[in-house]
Design a protein that fits this description.
With 855 residues, the protein is α/β, with parallel strands linked by helices. It contains 28 helices and 23 strands. The protein has a seven-stranded mixed beta sheet, sandwiched between helices. The protein has a six-stranded mixed beta sheet with strand order 9-15-14-12-10-11, with helices on one face. Strands 5-6-7-2-13 form a five-stranded mixed beta sheet, with helices on both faces. Helix 2 packs across helix 4. 40% of the residues are buried.
């Protein structure tokens, strides 16, 4: 989009994100809805198109596109000006206009939308007769709901009337959808979480979809072979879509080859129902919810029922919320306790009171409510929709508006749609259940409704249809498994719920080599390690522009938690030199520095040590990609102490480290002692006392030969069998040759760290580069560090096979500065490999034995 044409940019609401995710998982056509109506009279198409452009100008959401690539969270971009695509068709010569309409809608749906281009909608005006037109508005559900569609239709026809009279349409300032999104963020999430957790407490699995037997459908057991079922004609049930375009047709989103069973109450029965509701101060929503709860109770055999219900989302305290055009609709769980002995009126009134309380927290998204529940997988399988939109028709502009339809879209296993009007309409939509089952259910829905109207003194139990042989949808073969998602089949797999989770899933699966990957699978449980973490974070940095510390995985070890962190507006994971890996346990915490490695390297090590002692990893403060300012061991130790005191203000302290991290731990102990703190012990693992080797030709040759022999022994030990050793000569030559400086190592030489960092201190540099730079900084720090004598306990865990024992000795040089001596434990293995799969358990056994003697 031309930047000059951008009016504003703001994030998507959570429900919009859910619709966007669904579209990305499947295709944009799945989110496409056809809002349409019939116009009877004389229509000036040019004037109608002008009226639409006027209304589009009034509502930013009609000029909006959606963008999710390269951003931390999906955004909607409002254009200042757009032109609505407009098509005119003449079908007056079509012999079967119904078939033509079905074909047109199918082709239009298949065309989908380019969501990144505004507007995400288009219009078609189809002439059916001399004075009859069908207006089809194709749009995407992530931008609009049925209420908004009705508002737009009404405003378009008002604008048409004004233009017809040569006047400018009146414009009234109303809140924009951006105001609503801002209002949503101001709501009390903690209060909503508390309510919904309490509301859903103890509910552990979704209420099963009804499954009926032959006895339920036909009143008797079937015998012999039976062909495909045709839905029976029940009362005024209409088993097939009507052919007359002037009558209500199937809602969009329903397979046109599978008619949705429909019941239309007579105008007399509808009026009787309205009188009943007024006299007992009940809402239509309450009555419909009660009836559906009774049917679910009838077939599940459970008294604790849960299903979903749509709400307009316009009950909030935002002024003018009822006039906002956008996606405000929401889906909330309705939990009903079916008390058979309670009088039906009292039961319905209790239900209404309870739902009024729940509506106060109706601003929570379905994903949030799901996360606050105890249900694994989908929270509910059926949805109740009351299409109570502000539909207004007009006869003042030369035509009448008839049969306004919202274009219902539902992805739930079973959807009950109630359409108020002079004649109340009830229809059932499902891809999982047969028409025979749906026909029986819709008939029973009508029967229970009529029984309530006629028996207001009855108990709840008297309203439930008489029992028959029933089976639950949870039994084998109840539903075709191809219609069930994996989380419903297995109860443990969780698919992405939004575009960000989807993108993260794709990245994690590619890097970890695990597919399919549940969004609740822990990085560590599926084989994640520090090397894979580097690849993973590089990919997330490249594709999502998120530069975070690897230690974020301790805070958010799975995709769902990681996506939640990325979705926050504030920085989601601040870098720290101290990372809590294991915080439980009553014993003295161990603060462990890994040299140039990051905290993630020590996750497995900490896990093997157990939960009796807290474990905090220490790392360089500049591994986040920021400027390298810590080039001495003393400065690194001071930074660590500052972080340690936030966790443990006073001693005694227990510190340790690996490689140069051991020297930093040693310096930490010295500085703590100088401040008057007690240090219980310093744990060194394969750590040499820093100090330069003598640079004579003899010592250089000796160290290269020592290095070659070391690598030969090491590779034979780990690879075994002489036939696997053919590649070793080249490796050994590489080790004993003088190191050649590559371009990157030259750029990272100790003498040029300052200048190099000035150009590469951006946080989006690759993680490999950060560690290479940290290693060079550590080399510089080690070269300048001169440890002072230390009086205290020092424990050294060293690999049996070392490289430079000839120079340092058994204590690896620490005997020079450790006044009280060094306790040595030798671990089978080779220098640099004590943290691999083979050696770590041996190291941990000895370390745990040693630590058990400490507080």
């Amino acid at each position: 989009m031309d930047k000059k044409n951008i009016e504003t940019i703001y994030p998507l609401a959570l429900l919009q994100q859910a619709f966007l995710w669904h579209s990305l998982q499947t295709s944009t056509e799945d989110g496409l809805i056809h809002m349409r109506c019939t116009l009877k009279g004389d229509v000036d198409s040019a004037l109608l198109q002008q009226a639409w452009q006027w209304v589009i100008k009034q509502h930013p959401v009609l000029r909006t596109s959606v963008h999710w690539e390269g951003v931390k969270q999906p955004l909607q971009v409002v254009a200042k000006q757009v032109t609505m695509p407009w098509t005119e068709l003449d079908w007056r010569d079509q012999t079967d206009q119904q078939i033509a309409l079905e074909n047109f809608l199918a082709e239009d749906r298949a065309a989908g939308f380019e969501l990144t281009q505004a507007p995400i909608s288009r219009l078609a005006l189809i002439q059916l007769d001399e004075h009859i037109y069908k207006l089809v508005w194709s749009c995407h559900h992530l931008m609009l709901d049925g209420w908004s569609g009705a508002l737009v239709f009404h405003q378009v026809f008002d604008a048409y009337g004004a233009l017809q009279q040569g006047q400018l349409p009146s414009s009234k300032a109303v809140p924009t959808y951006q105001n609503y999104v801002r209002w949503l963020k101001q709501q009390d999430e903690a209060a909503a979480a508390e309510f919904w957790r309490r509301e859903l407490a103890g509910f552990l699995e979704a209420t099963a979809l009804p499954r009926l037997t032959d006895k339920d459908i036909f009143g008797k057991e079937a015998t012999g072979h039976r062909g495909p079922l045709n839905p029976p004609i029940l009362g005024d049930f209409e088993p097939a879509p009507p052919q007359n375009l002037e009558n209500p047709s199937m809602p969009d989103g329903v397979d046109n080859n599978k008619a949705s069973p429909i019941v239309v109450l007579s105008s007399e029965t509808t009026a009787e129902m309205q009188t009943f509701l007024r006299s007992h101060r009940l809402t239509l929503n309450t009555l419909m919810q009660g009836i559906w709860a009774l049917l679910l109770h009838r077939y599940s055999g459970k008294s604790d029922i849960l299903f979903g219900a749509t709400v307009s989302g316009r009950q909030g305290d935002l002024p003018g919320i009822e006039s906002i055009v956008g996606l405000l609709i929401n889906v909330l769980p309705v939990r009903v306790n079916v008390s058979r002995e309670q009088p039906v009126l009292a039961w319905l009134q209790d239900l209404q009171t309870h739902q009024a309380t729940a509506s106060r927290y109706g601003y929570a998204s379905p994903d949030q409510i799901q996360s606050w529940s105890e249900v694994s997988g989908q929270l509910f399988n059926s949805l109740l929709v009351i299409e109570n939109y502000p539909i207004q028709t007009s006869v003042d502009h030369g035509f009448q508006v008839k049969d306004v339809q919202s274009g219902l879209v539902s992805t739930y296993g079973l959807t009950v749609v109630v359409k108020p009007g002079q004649e109340l309409t009830i229809l059932l939509q499902s891809e999982a259940l047969s028409n025979a089952i749906l026909s029986t259910l819709v008939s029973q829905f009508k029967a229970v409704l009529e029984t309530i109207l006629q028996s207001t003194e009855a108990s709840v139990g008297e309203l439930i249809p008489s029992p028959a042989v029933m089976t639950s949808a949870t039994e084998e073969n109840a539903l075709d498994p191809s219609n069930l998602s994996r989380d419903r089949l297995e109860g443990r797999f969780f698919a992405p719920n939004n575009p960000l989770e989807l993108k993260l899933t794709q990245i994690w699966e590619a890097v970890l080599g695990v597919a399919p990957l549940s969004v609740q699978d822990s990085f560590f449980d599926v084989g994640g390690n520090s090397l894979l973490a580097v690849q993973l974070f590089n990919e997330m940095q490249r594709q999502l522009d998120c530069s975070l510390p690897l230690a974020t995985l301790f805070q958010a070890p799975n995709i769902r938690q990681f996506a939640a962190l990325l979705s926050q507006e504030q920085p989601v994971s601040q870098w720290s030199s101290l990372v809590p890996i294991q915080t439980s346990g009553q014993r003295l915490p161990l603060f462990f520095h890994g040299g140039s490695a990051d905290a993630l390297t020590w996750a497995r090590f900490s896990h093997l040590l157990g939960t009796e002692r807290p474990f905090y990893a220490l790392q360089r403060p500049d591994l986040d990609g920021s400027e390298v300012t810590y080039t001495t061991v003393e400065a690194l130790a001071t930074d660590c102490i500052r972080e340690m005191r936030m966790v443990q203000p006073t001693g005694p302290y227990l510190v340790g480290g690996h490689c140069l991290g051991g020297a930093i731990a040693f310096e930490i102990a010295q500085q703590l002692q100088a401040e008057g703190e007690d240090v219980e012990s310093v744990i060194l693992i394969d750590s040499y006392r820093p100090g330069e080797l003598p640079e004579t030709p003899l010592t250089k040759l000796q160290s290269r030969l020592q290095l070659g022999v070391f690598w030969l022994r090491k590779n034979y030990y780990y690879h075994g069998r002489w036939e696997n050793m053919t590649r070793l000569p080249g490796k050994i030559l590489q080790k004993i040759r003088p190191a050649r400086s590559s371009a990157s190592s030259e750029n990272l030489s100790s003498s040029s760290i300052g200048e190099d960092v000035a150009e590469t201190s951006e946080p989006n540099v690759s993680y490999e580069y950060r560690y290479a730079r940290a290693q060079k900084a550590n080399e510089q720090a080690a070269a300048s560090y001169v440890p002072r004598p230390y009086a205290g306990n020092v424990k050294l865990f060293r690999a049996k096979n070392q490289i430079l024992d000839w120079y340092f000795g058994r204590e690896l040089g620490w005997q020079i500065v450790a006044k009280d001596g060094v306790e040595i434990a030798t671990v089978p293995g080779f220098f640099g490999n004590l943290f691999n799969q083979q050696s770590t358990p041996l190291l941990v056994d000895q370390l745990k034995t040693s630590l058990s003697k400490l507080p």
